[in-house]
Amino acid sequence: MKQFKCLVCGYIHNGEEPPERCPVCKVGREKFVAVDNSSGQSEPAPRSAEKLAPSPSSMARKFRCVVCGYIHESDEPPERCPVCKAPREKFAPYFPEENENGIVYDNLFDVLETAHEATKKITHLKTEEMVFETYYFLPGQVIDYHKHPAGDQIFVVMQGSGEFFFNCGSETSTKLKVGDYILAPKNVWHKIVNTGANILVMTQVMARNAGMILKSTR
């Protein structure tokens, strides 16, 4: 039997053809490649597509949209998120008392399926020290030159392609593809351009009080 690997999340599919959609991260079949097992080396165990379920003793009456963070108070999640329009399966039980104790669990790949319906930036986590966000760039969209005077910024490309520019007196750039990570050091001018034909999705982690200065075009 053949095996096919999802290039986005690493899920391994067994069958004669790749699946129509990855059961883990929901990308289309074009993101699968055939796995060559001729070397005899064993493949890592496939990532489970199952969700973590809360115990009956801790059933929540709040549900959080994993796409935009909206909190819904009811015995059941809504049919659609009133903020980003994501379907009800994008809602997870929300336990604020657990989150306040510092334990937070979510699946970032849940965001990618409804990227076109989501806002241009989503904040997943925010603490006193750092912020974790996802940016969405439509084809041709640009975040122009800016810098953060008080903190580094780390990006990871989750979907799509683009180009990352630095300017430390002279301009340099690097092409971006899925899986790339890039550091924008504090106080260094940088910009991001979606040069691809599809949406570009990038997550970023940065110091919460890093600040932001836009570069003057004059």
UniProtKB/TrEMBL annotation:
This is Rubredoxin-like domain-containing protein. Residues 1-35, 60-94 form the Rubredoxin-like domain. It comes from the Bacteria. Pfam families: Cupin_2, RUBY_RBDX. Gene3D superfamilies: 2.20.28.10, Jelly Rolls. Residues 36-55 are annotated as: Disordered. It comes from Candidatus Wallbacteria bacterium GWC2_49_35. PROSITE patterns: RUBREDOXIN_LIKE (PS50903). Keywords: Iron, Metal-binding. Transmembrane segments: none annotated. InterPro entries: Cupin_2, RmlC-like_jellyroll, RmlC_Cupin_sf, Rubredoxin-like_dom, Rubrerythrin, RUBY_RBDX. GO terms for molecular function: iron ion binding.
